[in-house]
Design brief:
The chain is built from 21 helices and seven strands. The protein has about 425 residues and is of the alpha/beta class.
C-alpha cells in the first residue's frame, strides 16, 4: 500500500531497470553497467554525478537484480562503527552464499581513516561497495579506495528524460498524481523542466508543490509552477566540481577571445550564487596571464571592475564585471610575461643565491665604495638614447638569459620592436669592445 506521506520523488523512484530514464551512455544495450545489472553480479563501484540523476536508484536496482541485501549509509551521519556493523552483516550473508551491497551516499564526506575502514571488506568480498558522490572522486577519495572501485559518471538528465519522468508522475495513479487527473499546460511543463535543471528529484518536488498550490483546480498552468520554482538557482557549488568547471570555462572563453561565451559563463556563475568579487579577482589574474603587455589597459579595467563591485555591490557592480570580461575577451592576447615569469622563477629557484655583480650593488658608505660596490656602473639616463649599450645586468652565471619574448600582437608588437633595437645596440657595442 502506498504511503502518501512520502514525497512524490520517493514514491516514483524506479524499481526496475526498465523504469529508469536517462543515462543512455551507461544503460543502453551493450553498455558495461547494463551488462552488470542484467548479469545479476555486482562489483564495487562509485557513481559520480549531480544530484537527482539516479545514483541511489541505480544502487537499489543493482541490489535487486543481484538478489543482494541492500544496506545504506549516509556519510553525513555514519562512522566506523556503522561500517563494522555492515561488515558483520556481510560476513553472515557471505556464509550463506549471498552478496551484501553497502551503499554509501555522499561518500566524499568520509575522512581518510573512515575510507580506509572499507578496504579489507571490499578486498575479501564481504561487501560490494557502491558509493555516490557529487564531487570528483579523483580529489575526494583515497587512492587505495578508488583503485578498488570502478567509476561511473552520471550526467544531468536532458529535457526528454525529465519530460518522461514528469508525464509518468502525472499518469501514475498508484504512486503519483494520476488520481487527481491533473493537466499540465505545455508552457507550464516547459518551465518545470527548465527549472529542474537536469535533476529528477527537483522536477518531481516542483510538480508536487505546484499541484498542492493549485488546490482543486485540475489544470496546472504556469503560475503555480512559477511560484513553486521561485528562488531556484542553476547548479553550482562554491567548493565543488561545478564551480571549478565553470570558472575554467570562463577563463578559457576569455583566453580564446570569445566574448559571448565569456558572458554566458559569467552569468551562469552569478546565477548560481558565486561571489562577484571572486570573479573580479580571477579577471585580474586573466588580465596579466593571458593579455599582459599586448594591452596593458586590461589590467586597469579589471581593477576598475573590482573596485566598482566593492563600491556598488550587487546587482549594479556586476555590469562593470561583465564589461571587463567582454573587454578582456575582445583584445589581443599574450602570455609572454607569464611564460617569462615562470622561466625566471625557475632560474631563481635552481641557481640559488648568485651574487649581485659589483657594478650593480648599492654603495651608501665609504667602505662599500672602497670594496668596489657600484664601481663601473653606467647610469642609463646619461647614455645616448638613455640606454647603456652592452651592459650585462645578470649574475655572471646567467649572462645573456632571455625570458621575455614579446608577441607580434597589440602593444606588445611595439615593445618587441623597441627591445630588438636595443639588442642591436648591444650587439654593436659588444662588437666594438671585442674589436
Amino acid at each position: 500500500m502506498t504511503d502518501w506521506t512520502r514525497p512524490l520523488a520517493d514514491r516514483m523512484r524506479p524499481r526496475l531497470l526498465a523504469e529508469l530514464v536517462g543515462q543512455p551512455h551507461l544503460l543502453d544495450a551493450g553498455r558495461p553497467l547494463r551488462a552488470v545489472i542484467e548479469a545479476g553480479r555486482a562489483h564495487s563501484m562509485v557513481f559520480w554525478g549531480p544530484p537527482g540523476t539516479g545514483k541511489t536508484t541505480l544502487a537499489r536496482i543493482i541490489a535487486a537484480a543481484s538478489d543482494a541485501e541492500f544496506l545504506a549509509l549516509s556519510a553525513v551521519m555514519a562512522g566506523v562503527k556503522d561500517i563494522r556493523q555492515a561488515s558483520a552483516t556481510g560476513r553472515a550473508n557471505r556464509s550463506r552464499g549471498r552478496q551484501t551491497i553497502l551503499f554509501v551516499d555522499e561518500v566524499h564526506r568520509f575522512n581518510k581513516a573512515q575510507q580506509d575502514a572499507f578496504l579489507p571488506f571490499i578486498e575479501d568480498g564481504t561487501l560490494v561497495f557502491i558509493g555516490a558522490t557529487t564531487e570528483n572522486p579523483s580529489f575526494e577519495l583515497n587512492n587505495a579506495l578508488l583503485s578498488r572501485l570502478r567509476t561511473y559518471v552520471l550526467r544531468p538528465l536532458d529535457e526528454s528524460a525529465l519530460g518522461q519522468i514528469v508525464d509518468r508522475a502525472l499518469a501514475d495513479s498508484e504512486h503519483g498524481l494520476g488520481a487527481r487527473r491533473l493537466a499540465l499546460t505545455a508552457e507550464a511543463r516547459s518551465l518545470l523542466i527548465q527549472a529542474a535543471d537536469g535533476d529528477a528529484r527537483v522536477a518531481l518536488s516542483l510538480l508536487e508543490v505546484a499541484a498542492d498550490l493549485s488546490g482543486a483546480d485540475a489544470r496546472l498552468d504556469i503560475e503555480p509552477i512559477r511560484a513553486a520554482a521561485a528562488g531556484g538557482r542553476a547548479r553550482f557549488d562554491k567548493r565543488g566540481e561545478a564551480f571549478y568547471d565553470q570558472i575554467s570555462a570562463l577563463h578559457k572563453a576569455i583566453r580564446g577571445s570569445a566574448p559571448d561565451a565569456a558572458l554566458y559563463w559569467l552569468c551562469r556563475m552569478l546565477a548560481g550564487g558565486c561571489d562577484p568579487l571572486y570573479i573580479a579577482r580571477r579577471l585580474l589574474r586573466m588580465a596579466s596571464e593571458d593579455i599582459g603587455n599586448a594591452d596593458p589597459r586590461a589590467l586597469q579595467i579589471a581593477l576598475n571592475a573590482w573596485d566598482a563591485q566593492e563600491r556598488l555591490g550587487s546587482p549594479e557592480g556586476e555590469l562593470a564585471i561583465a564589461q571587463a570580461a567582454v573587454y578582456l575577451a575582445s583584445v589581443p592576447k599574450s602570455d609572454a610575461v607569464y611564460r617569462a615569469y615562470q622561466a625566471a622563477a625557475e632560474d631563481a629557484r635552481r641557481h640559488g643565491s648568485l651574487e649581485v655583480p659589483l657594478a650593480l650593488r648599492n654603495a651608501p658608505s665609504r667602505l662599500l665604495r672602497e670594496l668596489g660596490y657600484g664601481c663601473g656602473y653606467r647610469h642609463a639616463h646619461d647614455e645616448p638614447e638613455a640606454y647603456a649599450a652592452g651592459v650585462e645586468y645578470f649574475p655572471a652565471k646567467l649572462a645573456g638569459r632571455r625570458y621575455y619574448t614579446p608577441t607580434p600582437r597589440g602593444l606588445e608588437r611595439k615593445i618587441g620592436e623597441h627591445l630588438n633595437r636595443l639588442r642591436e645596440l648591444d650587439r654593436k657595442a659588444q662588437a666594438k669592445d671585442s674589436g
